[in-house]
Amino acid sequence: MKAVVCRRPGSPGELEVEELDRPAVPDDGLLVRVHASSANTVDLFTVSPVGHLMRRRRPAVVGTDFAGTVEATGKNVTSFAPGDEVFGAARGTFAEYVSVAADRVVRKPAAVSFEDAATLAVAGSTALQALRDHGHVQSGQRVLINGASGGVGTFAVQIACSLGAEVTAVCSTRNVEMVRAIGAGTVVDYTKDDFTRSGEHYDLMLDIAGNRRWSECARVLGKGARYVGVGAAGVQHGKGGSRRVLAHFLDVRLASIGSGRRVVALWIAKLRNEDLEFLGRLVESGRVKPVIETSHELAGVPDALRRIDEGHNRGKLAIVVRSR
Q1: List of residues 6+ apart from 5 with CB closer than 8 A
Q2: Smallest Cα–Cα separation from 289: which of 125, 124, 166?
Q3: Which pLDDT tens digit goes with each residue over 118-135?
Q4: Please, which residues have CB within 8 angstroms of residue 118's CB and are 6 or more apart in sequence?
């Protein structure tokens, strides 16, 4: 099978497409023929020196999200059969086949494309858990999303709207119309206006961009409001930008002590089947539509990850492995 592998740590440019043997089918797992995947910040960890050393399997196959068709099942698996369409997360999904535990995947709704389903696991789960589990968002609340145009941000805007929140989104000029089109009631162009000096107050702030000091964020948060930092996954790959993110969220956590706001500054999303199923239903119903900036073949993975590392992607970058 073809797979994107990391044989030596460094930059995404070190990644290569190689021919590897198909992975074995575990007794309690599935062999999935991958139709699509998508690029995430967490995928850069595999390329980092620390990630490279931690991976036991060499060469390390990169990729986390996937959507595809069950090719074979382990002898202990009764919940899936060959031909079932599924999606989820696993290690090494930038490949034509991936081996995954049966309890880590869910069925793909028939009306949802493989490409859309392949964007949901990491970014969708992160956005959902930031809003629901850490932000405790309620219908009618005012939610500010700083960094609304990337993979997590575009999901957060739509999920917040689907939960009944009133959304204000912060992004750059080129993304204003896109972010407005996916449901944000108010869009702030940060190149023209400073949202921290708007005089507005919010019940919840999702800080994906991680580019404002706590003293600035506190201006828009009333007593009892919540602040949720959404960038911990990016800390893992250990480059300069990630160290900046880590320092920022630690500063926020320390500076906010005693402020009367509820702050969750560092956390990593947990991939849960019930969340994947919920996200699948949101997409199936049309309440959420994954924003996909570009689609790449396996050979384009280095370019996709470079763009992710730069932090200027609009929505998700899909990886199309196999046409249906």
Answers
A1: 15, 16, 17, 18, 20, 59, 60, 61, 62
A2: 124
A3: 999 999 999 999 999 999
A4: 35, 36, 37, 38, 65, 66, 67, 87, 318, 319
- Please enumerate, as own/partner, the contacts of 16-25 that have beta carbons within 8 Å and a separation of 24 or more: 17/298, 17/299, 17/301, 18/59, 20/59, 20/61, 20/95, 22/97, 23/92, 23/97, 23/98, 23/99, 24/99, 25/72, 25/73, 25/74, 25/99
Q: CB within 8 A of 3, min separation 6: which ones?
A: 17, 18, 19, 20, 61, 92, 94, 95, 96, 298
pTM of the model: 0.92
CA 77 to CA 56: how far, in whole Å? Answer: 26
Q: For residue 317, what are the β-bridge partners?
A: 294
Q: What is the pLDDT of residues 139-171, one digit of tens each?
A: 999 999 999 999 999 999 999 999 999 999 999
Question: CA dist 91 to 3, 56, 306, Å?
Answer: 12, 12, 19
What is the Cα–Cα distance from 242 to 47, expressed in whole angstroms? 14
Q: What is the pLDDT of residues 230-277, one digit of tens each?
A: 875 444 444 444 555 666 666 776 666 766 677 887 788 999 999 999
- Asked whether the beta carbons of 122 and 95 are under 8 A apart, the reply is no
For residue 43 the two structure tokens come to 């995928």
